[in-house]
Amino acid sequence: MKTSFISVAVLTFAIAGTTGCDKKDDTSSTSKTESKSTKSDGPKQGSAGDQPKVEMKTPAPAKDDGPSADRDKDYLGLDMKPMGTWKTEWDGDQHTAKWIREDSFSIMVRVESESFESVEDIKTEAPMMPQLGSAVTKVLEDKKTKVGLYAIVEREPGTKDLFYVRKFGASTVICSANLKQDELNPKVITKDEAIAACESLALKKS
């Protein structure tokens, strides 16, 4: 009888232990399933809902520089007055205004598409400019003034050209003069003459 009782007790303990293990396994399995479910149900990183909203900026209005010189207007829309023996002339085909006199080079005025903020810009654009047509080899003088800037440059030995950069509204105007003489143009344009002409330019009043 004792042996039988012990056997029953051992068997009962074994069954209870097995059931306990089964419960632990079920609890662990349920916990892992819930954990996976929680992770999968959460918002996915990089989804459309997480992307920052991009605000479209309205472009700034174009800057109004006021009245400007215009290459298609007579005398570029500038007020050019005769000076002493110098007379004014408008060449509509070449979009060039000039001061002219006998036996002398002209003082020419043109609207340029480039901005020309320094003498370096003049050197860069020189080969494409009708006033020069070749590279600048030497800068003899350059100076900023109250109304713009000017430079006296050399293209080759014996040449001497003055370029005066003026701004009229959104337009860049180049006033230029050849300061050397030759057989066909014995009257030399002086530096002071050229600067006085270029600084006299003003927008024509409407």
What would you note in describing this structure?
This protein folds into two domains: 1-35; 74-203, Protein Transport Mog1p, Chain A (3-Layer(aba) Sandwich). Helices cover 27% and strands 24% of the residues. It is built from three helices and nine strands; from the N terminus they run H-E-E-E-E-H-E-E-E-E-H-E. The protein has helices spanning 2-41, 119-125, 191-199, and strands at 78-79, 87-91, 96-100, 107-112, 138-144, 148-154, 161-168, 171-178, 202-203.
Structure described in brief:
The chain is built from 3 helices and 9 strands. It is of the alpha+beta class and 206 residues long.
Name the CATH homologous superfamily of the largest domain. Answer: Mog1/PsbP, alpha/beta/alpha sandwich
CATH fold title of the largest domain: Protein Transport Mog1p, Chain A
Biggest sheet, open or closed, and with what strands and sense?
7 strands, antiparallel
Low-confidence stretches: 1-40
What oligomeric state best describes the polypeptide chains here? single chain
How are the elements arranged and paired?
Blueprint: H1 2-41, E1 78-79, E2 87-91, E3 96-100, E4 107-112, H2 119-125, E5 138-144, E6 148-154, E7 161-168, E8 171-178, H3 191-199, E9 202-203
Antiparallel strand pairs: 1-9, 2-3, 3-4, 4-8, 5-6, 6-7, 7-8
Name the features.
9 strands; 3 helices; 7-stranded antiparallel beta sheet; alpha+beta; two-stranded antiparallel sheet; about 210 residues; about 25% strand; disordered N terminus; Protein Transport Mog1p, Chain A; globular
